[in-house]
Amino acid sequence: MTVLQMTADELQQFLARDFGQVAEDFTVERADGAGLCLRLRVADRHLRPGGTVSGPAMFGLADVAMYLAILARIGPVALAVTTNCSIDFMRKPVAGRDLLAEARVLKLGRVLAVGDVLIFSEGEGQPVARAGLTYSIPPK
């Protein structure tokens, strides 16, 4: 059984306190032993020409979702950083809907954490993107 060090509310507060520049874009929907669900509140600034959510906005969603999924397990370690990310854009997000990222920590070691993120348009069953990420965890 996975023991969480931070709840969804605590993660949301951490985001607001330490990453205020992007905190308003995201809502932590769920944090539990299975992982984390993060909502991107899609706004005009996230869109590319043609009205679809941009790749950089989806990358940011995947990165923040995995970061928070790791922090849920290790506690508020602001200096954990992304060391690798690979993202596949599989289909166009549905216009006018928020995106939801489902993040899972696959391996949590002392210095590295590895996980994956599936991104969905709200209300849709097929993912629009999939990302694999590795994070470096600073020594205590």
Describe this structure in words.
With about 140 residues, the protein is of the alpha+beta class. The chain has helices spanning about 10-20, 20-25, 55-75, and strands spanning about 25-30, 35-40, 80-90, 100-110, 110-120, 130-135. It has one domain: Thiol Ester Dehydrase, Chain A, CATH 3.10.129. It has a six-stranded antiparallel β-sheet. GO terms for molecular function: acyl-CoA hydrolase activity. This is PaaI family thioesterase. Keywords: Hydrolase.
List low-confidence stretches: none
The CATH H-level homologous superfamily? Hotdog Thioesterase
CATH class: Alpha Beta
Q: Provide the gyration radius in Å.
A: 14 Å
CATH fold group: Thiol Ester Dehydrase, Chain A
CATH architecture: Roll
* N-to-C order of helices and strands: HHEEHEEEE
Average pLDDT value? 95
Count the helices. How many?
3
Largest sheet: 6 strands, antiparallel
Class by helix and strand content?
A: alpha+beta
Q: How is the largest sheet built, in terms of strand order?
A: 1-2-4-5-6-3
Count of domain modules: 1
Our estimate of the beta-strand percent is 35-45%
Roughly how many Å apart are the termini?
23 Å
Q: Could you say which overall geometry the principal axes of the C-alpha atoms support?
A: globular
Helix content: 25-40%
Count of distinct strands: 6
GO molecular function: acyl-CoA hydrolase activity
Domain Thioesterase: 50-126
Pfam family, one: 4HBT
Keywords: Hydrolase
Label this structure with key terms.
alpha+beta; 3 helices; Thiol Ester Dehydrase, Chain A; globular; 25% helix; 140 residues; single chain; 6-stranded antiparallel sheet
